[in-house]
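Tutorial handout. Part one gives the primary structure; part two gives the three-dimensional structure as tokens.
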Amino acid sequence: MNQRASVASEGRSGILADVNRHLLLVEDDARVRRVLTLALEREGYAVTEASTAQDALEAMSATRGYDVVLLDIMLPDDDGFAVCRAIRKHSDVPIIMVTARDDSHDVVAGLEAGADDYITKPLIAKELAARIRALLRRSQPKPSTDDRYEVGELVIDLGTAEVTRAGRPVNLTRTEFRLLAELAQAGHSLCSREQLLEKVWGYDYFGDSRIVDVHISRLRAKIEGDDDQSRHLVTVRGMGYRLVD
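Part two.
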């Protein structure tokens, strides 16, 4: 059974979005979809709507220029997790998963599917707009730098935003790359979850530290390989993470 939710509109945030920003909104409830679209358009965004998983994937194929995808988990023809995984096969567009409840399984499953962030229903327009702005800010390329880090077989090039392992490219999302870059720049120093939340997700992030743990798990799987057993990306239990040679 599909779960419905209301959207409480709180008016404009006072900070208008770039009018060139284009969002893909995937939500099967026509009423919620319409209210969200109006709220986002008032923030200055262009919005394309999709009501099914198939519509969402067709929209992604037709238009490569989306800046953010807002993706509901509950869809009539498939779930949002499958859509997220399909998008991640060819795009690193920032994705915010929408879940009907603050359920650990839904949150973790969404992040493991490749989402950058999550938000729970009922949606508050002001909070949603703040999440999108924060995600757009951290998705922007940082100023060019010549910094290049080598960690075992890993090469992390901050100037080109490229990562290789044993000479082969490692495909990371924008959030995963920012997380790895922060760990690399810290040297062998410990990075706590709170520090990573602030540096990667932003000081005004509304969520919790689960998002760090799940992204670390995804990042580790990509940079360590199947046999390394966390040789480089090390967990310090109860304290945080560090990147070591």
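Part three, for discussion. Residues 7-139 form a domain with the Rossmann fold fold (CATH 3.40.50.2300). Residues 125-139 form the longest helix (15 residues).
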